[in-house]
Amino acid sequence: MEPTKSSIKDLTYKINGAAIEVHKVLGPGLLESVYHQCFAYELEKRGLHFQSELRVPIQYKDISIDSKLRCDFYIEDLIVVELKSVDAIPPIAEAKLISYMKLLKSPKGIMYNFNVVNLYHEGQKTYVNEFYTVLNE
């Protein structure tokens, strides 16, 4: 079944729920690796298929380039998720997420920063690209 904006919205809701649950239980101030493991647990608990630390492929013309790029999570082969636990998201983190989305042909990406008081209002940013705009409603 082809993804739609509606199905991506539903998937986003489940992913947000997993992230909010992790933040609710652990709060801010821990290492990113702790949030990573707990977020993976919450995704599994919700029955979501995901790849963690996925090596992002680079296809250039007729060759595959060995990439050192790794995204934190690629969920349901649709949404790229990056986790942070920092005072402020650096521009390079956003550039990486956007690159992962383009290389994976992912229509949506979400950045979570767990080092905030309220994850939903302060700690998440959503990105969409040209792959999102061509989806059916």
Short description:
It contains five helices and seven strands; from the N terminus they run ααβββββαβαβα. It is an alpha+beta fold and 137 residues long. The protein has a single domain, classed as tt1808, chain A, CATH 3.90.1570.
Cα-based radius of gyration, to the nearest Å: 15 Å
CATH classification, class level? Alpha Beta
Strand order of the largest sheet: 1-4-5-6-7
At CATH level 3, the topology is: tt1808, chain A
Mean pLDDT: 94
Distance between the termini: 14 Å
Class from helix and strand fractions: alpha+beta
Secondary-structure element order, as H and E?
HHEEEEEHEHEH
Organism: Arthrospiribacter ruber
InterPro entries: GxxExxY
Pfam families: PDDEXK_3
Protein name: GxxExxY protein
Structure notes:
With 137 residues, this protein is of the alpha+beta class. The protein has a single domain (5-133), classed as tt1808, chain A, CATH 3.90.1570. The chain has 5 helices and 7 strands. It has helices at residues 5-26, 32-45, 91-104, 119-122, 130-133, and strands at residues 50-55, 58-60, 63-65, 70-75, 79-84, 108-113, 124-128. The strands form 2 sheets. Strands 1-4-5-6-7 form a 5-stranded mixed beta sheet, with helices on both faces. It has a two-stranded antiparallel sheet with strand order 2-3. Strand 4 (70-75) and strand 5 (79-84) form a beta hairpin. Helix 1 (5-26) packs across helix 2. The radius of gyration is 15 Å and the shape is globular. The relative contact order is 0.19. The model has no long low-confidence stretch (mean pLDDT 94).
